[in-house]
Amino acid sequence: MSDLIVIAFKDEQTAFALRAELAKMQKEYLIVMGDVVVVTKDDKGKVKLHQAQNLTALGAVSGGFWGMQLHLALVIFG
Length: 78
Hints:
13% strand, elongated
């Protein structure tokens, strides 16, 4: 089961610094995270998501893996 944790900061620099520290802690196996997203809002009110993981690349790798598994199953059992 996953938990969603939201922390608000007055400035972007603090949020990005925390994200870097969390990534460091994960590399040291102190915590386990699915993803970290910093959400910013510009002067015009436009919201931007700064994700730690590239979900497009992750999806492509995952899709390629399962596609290969399906192909092998069809070749072996087909």
